[in-house]
Amino acid sequence: MVQAKKEAAMNLPDGWDADELARARRLADQIRVGADARIFAARAPGRVNLIGEHTDYSGLPVLPVAIDRSTIVIAAANQTGEIEVANADSAWPSRRFAIERQIPPYDSGDWANYVKAAIQGVIDRFAARGKWRGASMVVGSRVPPASGLSSSSALTVSTALAFMAINQIELEPIDTATMVARSERYVGTHGGAMDQTVSILGRRDHALFIEFAPIRARAVKMPANAALVVADSREIADKSGTVRAEYNRRVVECSLAARILGRALKLDGVTVLGDVVRALPEWNAAELVEKLAAASPARLGADLKEAASILRVTQSALDAELLGHGSTRIALDLNRPLEILKRARHVLSETERVIGAADVLAAGRLDEMGTLMDASHQSLAGDFECSTNRLDAVVECARRGGALGARLTGAGFGGSIVALCEVAGADAVIESIDRGYYAKLDPVAPVENSRAVLHAGAGASVIDSSLRRLRSE
Ligand code: NG1
Q1: For a Cys staple, 149 with which of 17, 46, 362, 443, CB 3.0–4.6 Å?
Q2: Distance of CA 143 to the CA centre of its chain
Q3: Pairing state of beta strands 82-87 and 206-211?
């Protein structure tokens, strides 16, 4: 829960354990303000998604956990009216920018675009407010970047919370999630709202069953005997380049599938597959896929002409609706056809799996949960085509080591896998990945940084303090 606390240690929001406080203190020491100046420490976790991959932007459910790795932003109001932001990791250079109605982005790939995204999101949400306080910020992250654990959302959420605190804005957690999810599109990825929502609403020892349109979440207790092994393939899923193009392409393909299906079923106003599912309480994936196959070729020309003709709309109207305009316009590779059927088959079958998984997990039936995760990976690899040889290899090693199920987690195209096992079996899974995967990588980097047993941790929160008080907490 997002909560500003003014009091000392005993009242700190969940997630602020001794380690996190020590990190906050070290970061706060880098900010140049007097010991009694008011500072805010915002903490937002990354996430690992258990199941429900590439469903959120179709408005369909997901089942992630917030992890016990977070990004912390320390912020103090400044007099310049600008945002000055430093990163504790020297690989990410300091940045300074003015708070304007439309903040121009840095070049694609610049880390501070996520900072700008957060600030722009707050400004857009509270557009009527004329004057904004600037802030000096220091960022420190323990969520590994580009590894499918949503370091981007941890940064965007923590920055938004810090900036809101500086400007004395309070918002319900669900509203904050909606705002930040939208604002992250500033970086050009047309993502859903899973990452931001679980980062904000996550609960210790629980997964979150999140539904969309509107966002709502139900906590599902993680069985006490369950362990989550997360292993990074060390293949970088860089969301500022080709991965972003592939991701956005999937968003377009899924929306086209939805529109064609909506038309075939005579449903009004369908733009995402979730609209179809919500209109048909008795739906099932196999039947919907069959209906789609009857209404459309499995793949369509990439210039949207064929899709426009099936949908009986003009190509330019479809282009504007699907690809957007301005700095967030999606570029489509016009040499490749758009996959419609396979993408819809993944999203719809995955939705059935997610709904099943929430019940199975709540009942502690880990074997069945593992089977669903395996099926999810197969569908992501085959129909959604977002796995890679390396991700498949790590998944395979986890299974060989006795995992009950394993799958890529996050957008894919590199990044991490998540394996479910019993607590007592976690070491064997890790050993199998070490031996079967990391040992064969060249050059050999310390494996300790690449895989771990992660725990479901608390969602984001803010501490309102002074340097002096933070030091004594
Ligand atoms: P990651 O793994 O953080 O790139 C992305 C999207 C999610 C979701 C997953 C796939 C963003 C910020 N995140 O996650 O919304 O669509 O892919 O399930 O775009």
Answers
A1: 46
A2: 12
A3: unpaired
Rounded distance, CA 221 to CA 279, Å?
A: 30
Tally Cβ neighbours within 10 Å of residue 194: 29
Q: Are residues 436 and 317 in the same domain?
A: yes
The answer to whether 300 and 338 have CB atoms below 8 angstroms apart is yes
Q: What's the full length of the chain, in residues?
A: 473
Give backbone dihedrals phi and psi of 370, rounded to 5 degrees, phi first. Answer: -60, -40
For a mutational test of ligand 1's pocket, the pick from 48, 114, 195, 236, i.e. the residue with the most ligand atoms closer than 8 A to its C-beta, is 195
Of 48, 143, 150, the residue with max ligand 1 atoms within 8 A of its CB, to mutate for a pocket test, comes to 150
8 A C-beta contact, residue 462 and residue 162: yes
- Distance (angstroms) between ligand 1 centre and the Cα of 193 equals 8
Q: How many domains does the chain have?
A: 2
Which whole-number Å values give the CA distances from 417 to 198, 388, 410, 420, 462, in the listed order? 18, 11, 8, 10, 30
Do 78 and 210 reside in the same domain of the chain? yes
- pTM: predicted TM-score of the whole model, two decimal places: 0.95
Residue 232: which domain range?
Answer: 223-454
3-state secondary structure of 421: strand
Asked if 151 and 266 sit in the same domain, the reply is no
Nearest ligand 1 atom, CA 409: 2
CA distance 283 to 290: 12
Three-state DSSP class for 22?
A: helix
Q: Encode pLDDT of 164-220 as tens digits.
A: 999 999 999 999 999 999 998 898 888 899 999 999 999 999 999 999 999 999 999
Measured from the CA of 193, which atom of ligand 1 is nearest? 15
Instruction: Say which DSSP state 193 is in.
Output: S
Give the CATH number, domain containing residue 256. Answer: 3.30.70.890
